[in-house]
Design goal:
The strands form two sheets. The protein has a seven-stranded parallel β-sheet with strand order 4-3-2-1-5-6-7, sandwiched between helices. It has 17 helices and eleven strands. The longest helix is centred in the last third of the chain and has 34 residues. Helix 4 runs parallel beside helix 5, helix 11 packs parallel to helix 14 and helix 14 packs parallel to helix 16. The protein is an alpha/beta fold. It is globular and about 55 Å long. 49% of the residues lie in helices and 15% in strands. It binds NADPH dihydro-nicotinamide-adenine-dinucleotide phosphate. NADPH dihydro-nicotinamide-adenine-dinucleotide phosphate (NDP) binds next to helix 1, helix 4, helix 6 and helix 10.
């Protein structure tokens, strides 16, 4: 029995992971659950799974959870705070850690799982974008197994030679072709993009995902983050990664070899496939996914992305080329800007304006230690908030002026 900890269990990837675990009760034992503040959902998961540990990062929500459970889950030890997420990622009885917390908040627990030599199922792409060299070094030093959950990277992993190692360019690979759905606004004009609402941005045509990654998908920042993730995971430079818009999300990514062979992984757009692949690897296990019917599917289209209408992609590509601390600043500014958009404090095209403003004032430099990453992350967030405050002031004045 493989002991599993699911960090981010109340989210979209977390729930899909529990679904796959439920289909394979003879292979896996759920040891720990972790989330931020959704006490109601975590309480239900605890009562269903009876894990040895459960964590809420938020102390108020943890109090609510305690109240909801009362004495009904005596076998589950409730822990509070982000240090407890690090603790459950390193437990000796945990063999595999699903790192599915969203954003920079997932960095410490992901690093902890890598340092503890776990099988690390990496959905939290932000931790690789922020601290790729540190995470890969931790994996190498501890002998951890790093398996990508992002469907594109999981597809690439499946198309690479089986003895490939994280961060090392596999021999004979000419290019990696990273597919992108193009998001819900793929064909929208620059003018129409001004009118995008959070609701529309979160309604992805092919995938059901959390709100942050849905907005990233709509701006194409998700593909930019994935480009950086691919460079770290597969040890290749950005110039060797081509981004292809593929609206049907059936071909999850491709690898081109020097002899002209192109290997692809296909499947229904359902995260349970990469989750089951990584949980079962090297075996194949049931995922519950609908099998692909290519005749019904009929056609597969591909086109180039437009980094002019989708400026976030161009900014991420530039940060990937610059490297060092630039991706850290990109990620932090994006998190602040996306939250402001979701809170209706920013319109859709302004997300890229915030990121660009932060990146132009970022000093950059190499990543030496985790402290460098955390300092750059904090500074980029400060700059992004400052930019947002500056944006609001002139706008408020303009509005007052117009009224007068
Ligand atoms: P969701 O928003 O659906 O879920 C996020 C999870 O993270 C929730 O469990 C949430 O807890 C938890 N969380 C948020 N903030 C904190 C915090 N400060 N401390 C601890 N836990 C926290 O996100 P997704 O499942 O969509 O995405 C998760 C990760 O997987 C992201 O990095 C995303 O990029 C990546 N990914 C997602 C895919 C998808 O299909 N959804 C596909 C590929 C990658 P709570 O509910 O309590 O707030």
């Amino acid at each position: 029995m493989i002991g599993v900890a699911v960090l981010g269990s109340t989210g979209s990837v977390g729930e899909n992971t529990l679904d796959v675990l439920a289909r394979n009760p003879d292979r896996f034992r759920l040891v720990a659950l972790g989330a931020h503040r959704n006490a109601a959902k975590l309480a239900k998961q605890i009562l269903r799974w009876r894990p040895a540990y459960a964590v809420l990062a938020d102390a108020n929500a943890a109090g609510e959870l305690q109240g909801l459970l009362g004495a009904s889950a005596p076998e589950t030890r409730l822990l509070v705070g982000s240090d407890a997420l690090v603790e459950i990622a390193s437990l000796p009885e945990v063999d595999a850690v699903m790192a599915a917390i969203v954003g920079a908040a997932g960095l410490r627990s992901t690093l902890a799982a890598a340092r503890a030599g776990k099988r690390l199922l990496l959905a939290n792409k932000e931790s690789l974008v922020m601290a790729g060299p540190l995470l890969l070094e931790a994996v190498r030093a501890s002998g951890a197994t790093l398996l990508p959950i992002d469907s594109e990277h999981n597809a690439i992993f499946q198309c690479l030679p089986p003895d490939s190692r994280p961060g090392q360019a596999p021999p004979g690979v000419r290019r990696v072709l990273l597919t992108a759905s193009g998001g819900p606004f793929r064909d929208w004009t620059v003018e129409a993009l001004q009118t995008v609402t959070p609701e529309a941005a979160c309604a992805h045509p092919n995938w059901v995902m959390g709100r942050k990654i849905s907005v990233d998908s709509a701006t194409l920042m998700n593909k930019g983050l994935e480009l950086i993730e691919a460079c770290f995971l597969f040890g290749i430079p950005p110039a060797q990664v081509e981004i292809l818009v593929h609206p049907q999300s059936i071909v999850h990514s491709l690898v081109e070899y020097s002899d002209g062979s192109v290997l692809a992984q296909l499947g229904s757009p359902d995260m349970r496939t990469p989750i089951a692949h990584a949980l079962g690897w090297p075996d194949r296990i049931a995922s519950g996914v609908e099998f692909l019917d290519l005749i019904r599917q009929g056609r597969l289209d591909f086109q180039a992305p437009d980094p002019v209408r989708f400026r976030c992609l161009a900014l991420a590509q530039a940060a990937a080329r610059t490297g060092g601390l630039h991706p850290v600043a990109l990620n932090a500014a994006n998190e602040v800007a996306v939250q402001a958009f979701l809170d209706r404090r920013l319109n859709f095209p302004e997300i890229s304006a915030v990121i660009e403003a932060v990146l132009t004032t970022t000093a950059g430099g190499a990543i030496g230690a985790l402290e460098d990453v955390l300092a750059t992350d904090a500074e980029a967030r400060r700059l992004a908030h400052e930019y947002l405050a500056g944006q609001r002031a002139p706008r408020a004045q303009a509005a007052r002026g117009a009224h007068a």
